[in-house]
Amino acid sequence: MAQHSQNLFEQYVINEDDKPIFLFINPTILNEITFLAWKPFESYKIKHPEIDLKEVNPLELIDLTVDKVKELIKNDVLQISSGNKDTVIKQLEVFKELGSADAVNASIADHYNLSFLTVDNRLVYNMFKIRSKLRGIPRVYFTSSKHQSY
Fold first, then answer.
1. CA nearest to 34, candidates 1, 13, 63
2. Residue 3, pLDDT above cutoff 50
3. Is 47 helix (H, G, I), strand (E, B) or coil?
4. At residue 2, does pLDDT exceed 80?
5. I need a labelling partner for 84 at 20 to 30 A (CA). Which of 108, 113, 141, 146 fits?
6. Own/partner pairs for 121-127, CB < 8 Å, 24+ apart?
7. What are φ and ψ of residue 29, in 5° steps?
8. What pTM was computed for the model?
9. For the chain, how big is the Rg over CA atoms in Å?
10. Please, what sign has the CA dihedral across residues 122, 125, 129, 132?
11. Residue 65 near residue 37, CB atoms below 8 Å
12. For residue 117, what is the DSSP state?
């Protein structure tokens, strides 16, 4: 039976002093965080010109958000599910250069020393630019988009 969720967190989590709290995050959630911290801010400003956001520096906000999430992961406050700490930290380190979704895949390939195949020429170029951060990827293969299956 469904219960009303109003004050659910306060009633069942915060009020139980001796109960440990475990927070979990996975790479796809981080993908959304890094994406939302990037392009949607500019879209929001365009759609809501009546809101004064001149004092908000989006680059500082992005860096602060990502750095704090990274700190929570490194300090084991956020536990990784469906992934591991190393790949998630790498994902947060390369998302600006590769884009949010590609950072997930590149971080996994880097961690497991996997070669990488893509039809995205720009991704190949961006991976090449940050190859010092992706030393675990032995080769990056590129093929034309005529081989793309979606």
1. 63
2. no
3. helix
4. no
5. 141
6. 123/98, 123/99, 126/97, 126/98, 126/99, 126/102, 127/98
7. -65, -45
8. 0.67
9. 19
10. positive
11. yes
12. E
The tens digit of pLDDT for each residue in 48-93 reads: 889 888 787 877 877 888 888 889 889 888 888 777 899 999 999 9
**Amino acid letter for position 64:** L
**Total residue length of the chain:** 150
Q: Where are the domains of the chain?
A: 20-112
Q: How far apart are CA 27 and CA 15, in angstroms?
A: 30
Task: Extract long-range pairs of 89-93: CB within 8 Å, 24+ residues apart.
Answer: 90/133, 91/27, 91/30, 91/31, 91/34, 92/30, 92/34, 92/66, 93/133
Q: Distance between CA atoms of 116 and 105, rounded to whole angstroms?
A: 9
Please write the tens of the pLDDT for every residue from 115-135.
988 888 999 999 999 999 999
